[in-house]
Every structure is written in structure tokens, then in C-alpha cells.
Request: fold
Amino acid sequence: MQGLMMDFPLTLQHPFQRATTLFRRREIVTQTDDGLHRYTYADWGKRVMQLANALKQAGTEDGDRIATFGWNTYRHFELYYAVPCMGAVLHTLNIRLFAEQLVYIVNDAQDKIIFVDGDLVPVLEKLSDQMPTVKLYVIMGDAPNATGKLQPSIDYETFIGSQPTSYTWPTLDENTAAAMCYTSGTTGNPKGVVYSHRSIYLHSMGIGMADGMALAERDSLLPIVPMFHANAWGGPHAAAMVGARVVFPGRFMDPRKVAHLMIDEKVTVAAGVPTIWIGMVPVVEREGLKFPHLRAIYCGGSAVPRALIENLERNNMNIVHAWGMTETSPLASLCNLRAYQEEWSQEEKFRVRAKQGTMLPGVEFRVVNIDSGQEVPWDNTSYGELQVRGPWIARMYYHDEESSRTKFADGWLRTGDVATVDEDGIVQLVDRTKDLVKSGGEWISSVELEGLIMGHPKVLEACVIAIPDAKWSERPLACVVAKPEFEGKVTKEDIIEFLRPQVAKWWLPDDVVFIDAVPKTSVGKFDKKVLRSRFEAYSTAHD
Reply:
């Protein structure tokens, strides 16, 4: 017997309709070179439909890939809905990728049009002759350093300006591709992940739930995580669905500018990687900044150091640990405290908040022993690879069958993250499989060591990598960045003594090196491959 419900397709046309009718008064704010650009969802909706008309006139057909190369702005937000709602596929390009990776991605996706922010035009000018599928460049805003090499090209406002402010959306299957994003390509070529209307719709509902981000119409959301990175963690889509006010930082990512934008625009919810908030702590403390409207900061991309959670809490800033990947749309789990944990001591709460938390409704998980392939017990000690599945989890890569075979097995996504689970199903990542240090046949978590080292009052950042060792195979090397006021005033011995009472003796790093900054990936994560390359001969030189 079948259910008797309406066959209602879960497409992005529905949240677009909600935003432009039920929440037409709510603001969308963008930080620009000329100050703040403000308009409403009603204004946004008219421009989205003008953009859809312009794309159609330019020859866009169902399934065409329309790319963006831009910052978090209102124009980018217009593209987030115009492109998929008309039946095309939004392809967000990572503006920080190496040239060869960028060319590979554009050609692999066969992008037809690229929308590019004016200040980023010079980047594409150097590569345009290597991207034969691109038939038009639409330039968003002033491009003072452009040479005119991008051809044919047109200004964004000219492109949409004469178009009608209404558009009849086609009837779409909910499984139609809506957007695509490529992984940052830490090994081999970047891999394409294609999101359907249905997956984005359900992900938006999942993160909007009370035990998700609890997004509501009354919120003002600041997505600092780039819109070119896994749909800005789904924030812009969820915001439109619930009618939340959105504040975009534009290209202005300096911690002080972001902090003051949060205060001035009464931001209630913000989202960004740990490095953003690590950089903001000294600004907040130096200037005595207060955030009376801020409800929560959602932080992921890499493990949130417990020291960062404590530092922000001390400044009345509540940071919530999140976990996900490009392949998971991306949010899959959030660490909101359970009811029974609310009565715990602050020390116990911090211990839990440093975990990745509880999977969102709709996401199933298991943790599998790396060697045996068997599920590990939920004892908060046994660890293995975290594997997930669900309605917004990818099942394969675009144009990459070989990687799909190794990454997706038996209906599960093999995340490459190593995790433990407690008796209540709360997940904690201990490392990436490729970042674990295997010393004498035993595993050492580089992530846990990093978090502990960053708890030292004189340390700003820390990154731990494996270095070869003739006796133990591998040993940990700690690469440490001192806080500016403590440069030259913190030693290897300080770090080792700080760690000694907190970890087993054999976990202690063999050495501590002080560096100017931890290199970052294109999406703000610690880039360990750069440090591995830099210190690949370290053990020999050290000996």
C-alpha cells in the first residue's frame, strides 16, 4: 500500500518563493568597497528573475554548468538561486586554487559561462585561453586591473538590467542537478561533487532544525565560510528557506573588519573555519569588543581546538563544533550539548564541546576499524574510519569512477576521518587517516596533540606532522607559531613540559620547531602537505 501524499518536488524554487513572498521585507547586506549594500528579499527576487532571463537569452540550456568566481556577496547569492531554479547547474569555483587545478576543473565541468568579481578578473585573464568551453564572462563590479583579455565579456548590471523582473520557472525533477563543487584536491586532481535540488532542500531543513543551526526568520546570518566552498556550508540556502537576514562580508576578511561587521549588523549566527576565530580572539580582547546579539558561531572545516572554545567562551562568544565535507553537502554533525550535559561542570562541558557531536537527522554513521574492517564499539576509546550515508551525502564523484570506487563502498561514504564514539553516539574525530602518526605500530593523533599545544597560553597555532624515524617508523614533529607578544619567549621545553601531564610519554613530540605561520589550504585549513614537504628530510638533518 502506498501513501496518499501529494507528489511535491523538493526543489529550490520553493524556498525562493517563500523568501520573496513571506519574507520580502528581510534584508540582505553586503560589505563593499563603497560601504554597505542593502536591499530586501523582494529586491533580490526581482534581480534573480532578471538574471534567469538574461541567462536564457544568452543561450543557457537545462544542465549547462554556469560557474562563479567570486566572494560572498549579494550578486553571488542571486546566482545561487537563478541558475538552479531555471534548470542549469551552479558551479562555484575556488578562487584560491592553483592555476592548473582551476583550468582542470573548468574543463572537466565544461563551464559555459563564468561570473567573476571585478577584482578577480586578472586571475582568469591569465588562464582564459586554456578554457575553450567558456563562451561568456560576466564581470561583477568594477575591474580596475583588467586588461580586456576576457572576451566576450559583459558587465553584470548591463547583463541583467534590461530584463523582465518575472520568470516562469520550469517544472523540475527534485533529483535534477542544482550545483556542483570540487574538493580542494589534496591528493590528485580535484573531485567533483554534484548536489541535487532534493539534497540541498533536505540539507537546508536539517541544519535549520533546533538541534542544527536553529536558523529562523529572526536571525541575522554571517557566512564567512566562502560561497565557493560546499555552498557556504548550506547557510545561504537555509537562510532563504526560513527568511533569515543575511550579512555577506564581501572580500573583507580581516578579523577586525569581520568583528565590527558582526557588531554593527547585529549578527546572531556566524559560520567559518577555526583560523578566522583564532585570528579574532586577540582583536576582541585588545579592543574589549562585545557581541550582545550573537547566539552562536558554527565552526568546522578542521578540528576546533578546545583552547579556542574556552577563549571565545571567556568573551561570551558561543562556538559550536560542526563537521562535514564537500561530499556531505557539507554539514553532517553538530555538537550541541545534550540535556543531561547542561548540569555538568564547565570542565566537562568543554571536553564534550571539543567533539564533533551528534549526526543530524537523516545522516547515519558507523566507525570501522582501519585494519579489520569491523565496526568498533561505542566505548569512547576504540577508533576507526568514520563512514556516513544519507539523503544529502554524495554517492559518487563526477567523471571519476576510479576515485568513486575507493571512496564509496557498500552504500557508505568513506570519509577518511578517524573517530571514536561514546555510548550515546557522540562522535569525536581524532585525525585524518593520512595524518595519523604510526609510531612503533601504535597510532598517535596529530589533531589531539595540536589541540593541546594550542592550549598553551603563549601559542597561537600548532600543526603536528609525522617525520620518518629509523627505530619507530614515524614520530611526531610539532610546528608551533607563538603569539606575537611571545615570539622568542617560548621554547621546546615549555611545550613538552606543558604536554607531559596530558598525554602518554610516547606521544610527546620528538621535537618542536617554531615557524612564522602554519600554511593554509584554499579553504583555510592547516596545509600539512606543505609542512611535510618542508620537513621531509628533517629526521636525517636532525640526526
